[in-house]
Amino acid sequence: MPKGALARAEGIVVQWGQALEEEKAVEINLQANVLGANAAIAQGLREEFARRGVYSINLISSPGAGKTTVVERLCALLKDKVRLAVIEGDITTSLDAERVARYGIPVHQINTFGGCHLDARMVERALQSLDLEGTQLLLVENVGNLVCPADFDLGEDAKMVVLSIPEGDDKPAKYPATFRRAAAVLLNKIDLLPYFRFDLARVKRELVAMNPQQRLFETVATTGQGMDAVVAWLVDEVQRKQKAAGITR
Amino acid sequence: MHELAIATSIVDIVQAELAKRSLTRATEVKVVVGELSNVVPEALEFCWEVATQETPAAGSKLVIETRPVTAECRACGHRFAVENYSFLCPACGSGDTQQTGGNELYIEHLLAE
Predict the structure, then answer these.
(1) Which tens digit of pLDDT belongs to each residue from A147-203?
(2) Domains and CATH numbers, chain A
(3) Distance CA B86, CA B97 (A)
């Protein structure tokens, strides 16, 4: 074969190889958790809470259901029983932190500036200015929203969802993921039941079906009605957590 | 808002994976979304174009596979598809059940070059 033809043939083979290389799409089997970055930080928080014996609550509800009033009432009822700290999450303002600070409880305000939920990184950062030494119960009040907060693990032991009577009895059915993941639900403003078309029996039935292990409380956070049961549950959980961490007081 | 954050998070993971393997472009990304994951597939698709703009995933196809909500009864061992979000065992009525599917939210694979 003449030298020129061989060189040309070689050239064609090289070009063909390059073309093959370009066309070859690689399939990468990833199996990567989309929220993996948040999950990793949350796991770190969970381990720190476990080591310190801190029982942590992620408090979720719509805006206006009474989350902050629940926090205030819990501060008043719990402050002589357990050492608690509070993280407040809001899009803007420090109004909630100011309300909690009146009870002499260590509190840190997170502002998400538009963000519709707290994530583990925000809590991690908040803990840089909130000393957990000696803390037994950490209440984290999420941004008022029944959707996104349920998806972002904050390293908490339990999600507590507040559903107030004026919001309507369709909320569990409309936000099943959030209510399914709630370890406890507070049916708040229960004293308003006579004034609203709210089918309490139906809501209870739906909640039990969504999460049969869930604890249900009927409360009026403003007056304290029904809050003793919530307090008893939390004190119990705190004691269990402290014991697991080998802390005796 | 939420789906845009999810889409951005997917793009971040894809981008990191491409860099790790010295690849330049993703052509397809397949995501598995559980029916109880709080992610609306239509909203995620809508956000995909915006989230991928000026990234190595620009112009890529987003494939979403949804997974049903399933559970298993600890009392009688019955495995069932959860309907109307009821986790009560349809066989024995027990509430001692464990969710086995429906919370998925992960990237299964991607095609890249």
Answers:
(1) 999 999 999 999 999 999 999 999 999 999 999 999 999 999 999 999 999 999 999
(2) 36-244 (3.40.50.300)
(3) 10
